[in-house]
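INTERNAL AUDIT FORM
Audit reference: QA-55
Scope: verify that the stored structure record matches its stored sequence.
Auditor: D.O.
Record contents follow.
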Amino acid sequence: MPYVLKKADEDKLVIRRQYDANSTLKNMGTLTGTAFELVFVKPMYWWLVIFHYLLYFLKRFHKCEEEWKIPNCTPTAEFFAKYPMTIGDISMLSSLVTFFVVFYNGSCFTKYNVMYNNVIAIQGKIHNVGLYLRAYYTKSSTRWNVIRYLLASHFLFYYSLRRRYKDWGSSQYSEDPGTEAEFCNSVLLKKGVLIQPEYDTLLRYKGSKHKLLYSWSVIAMKRIMQAAPPKGEKGNPMLNTEFEQTALMTNLKKEIIGMRQSIGTIDNSMLFPIPFQYYHIVNVTLVVFLHLLAYGFLFMADKLGSVFSLVAYPLVAFVLMGLLEVANAMSDPFGSDACDFSQDAIVNGLYGETKKLCEEPDEPFSANIGDPLFNPKRNPDGSLDESAPADLDMSELDDEARIPHSEVERLMAERDALSNYGAEGVKLLSLQVKRLTQAQSSIFQVVEKLQDTPRQLRETNESALARVVRLENLLQNQLMILKGELRGDPYEMRYMGEELQPPPGVNPGPEAAPQQRGAMQAPPAPSAAYTAAAQATPSYHHFAGAAGAGGGAGGGGGGGAGIGASPPPPPRRQR
């Protein structure tokens, strides 16, 4: 039997029909909230019952009376006897109908179960966000500024479901939820989850509005942790390290992403019904089978018929059609059926719980939570000391564990001052490090230049040696030419010398290497013929000495004799 619940308790339940499964007889006597409400309002059911009753009474009572004078009249019983059909004749169709209905019912219940789990998951994740905010944020205003966007998204999502299926003409949604502007004005603004500028922006937004609200919640979390009190939580003792801030943001974003995933699952499940082809064949097969069954029930009890069919057939039709209608009700759990979810309990219940969680003041002993002394006293064996007073002696706690709530803001201000001082120190240190880095870079450049100096000196020395060698070769050539001129050598011998053959492997042509063609070579040594001719021919100084001697003798014995005695000089080749 369904439980007798108070109105306040019933409004908190997602599924309002709660019952005691052990009270079988009492549950059977209940009509409200059962399949009777679903089947008895269907015209098809009453047509099937009337159809069977009509066939039965025609077979049982129709006779051709003589006074009616109907030509070729045949009693209905005799006519049906010509075309008998028992229940066994349609056993194959009966098996198919049973399979179709049961499978359809199971698929709809699976969908119903998935959507219920995601509805509860959304509630749980918003509760988790509220718990995190209450544990880590110190001010109720900052807690509410984060979670109100999530609540607004929650309200807006369920409104969008009702609005969509009302516009599509679903029989499940008879009540008009109103326009989006009316809903936002009557719910979102009135409950304090949005303010007017946000409301105006939300109405102009053309995309998925509940997803936009998720992004606002994440932005609010980030900016609240960056802002100083009273607008933010910067310097909060619960978030005094970067690791704690990162961990909190990660956990909150994980819960918000999970909420978006659950809402997406619900929305996609609503837009993914059982394929219409399958739904159609189930309904057609069931209706045809029930019409045939209405005729087959006339031949119960060895084809004679029985008055029991007047009870059995409506019951069989009720069971089969009841299973189908219950499956249809479960396929859309956000309507007005008895098994549907209560949207008021979902959104309003969650709103009330999170509002209390975020706005209720902290407990007076919240600063002492976690202190080893803030525990029930125990005996040495580990059992509770029952003689200890119920109220703990707060004087036994350390002074640091009993910080008054009024001192929190002062401590946070001091922490902010220290943080600013530390930030300035970090800036100065960063500047010094930058300067040291630049100096080190300059030193490395100078060292590289010093390392390149020996190589440059070596290249300069090699170049100078090469120039000296070329100058020596040039001087030797000039000296050889000068000696030839002083000796009076012929022009060919003086300037050309003997023709020298190039050594093996050297190509003196234009295709030879530049160093082979341009290098100045020493003059070749004179040949043997040139040496003999030079010795046989007196030099310029020899002729001059002989002439002096002849002159002296001629002067003493005759000058003419002295000059005539000297041989004439060799002829010179004119240049």
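Auditor finding: record pair retrieved intact. Residues 396-402, 496-524, 536-567 have pLDDT under 50 and may be disordered.
Action required: none
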